[in-house]
Amino acid sequence: MSTETKDGWVGVVKGRPQVGAFAERTRRTRISDIEAFTDITGDRNPLHYDRALAEKSVFGKLIVQGGVTSGILNALVAEDLPGPGTVFLEVAWKFVKAVGVDEEITGRVEVKEVRPDKP
Length: 119
Fold this sequence. Notes:
Layout: E1 22-28, H1 31-41, H2 51-56, H3 66-80, E2 104-110
Antiparallel strand pairs: 1-2
């Protein structure tokens, strides 16, 4: 039985990242983001669709689903850092502020640790 650790980074297009490396993406949210996310998930919370209700809520505006905002991080990991050939091993989201329609969001990922066996 071999105790040799396989190099999990073999299929990663951009190779193994360095600790401290980071990447960012910025985009503006749109009504079409809400519609696309609803098509995928079925999330029809009126805070995303009913402007009158949303404006009377604690948020004071229509807000996009949390998955719309966290999705930018999926793109960062899959496309930028580490890039194609990698997947999330674990995530924990903490939403500190609601994001409205037509607001700019920025996602940022930073490499804190690199495991030789996991891309």
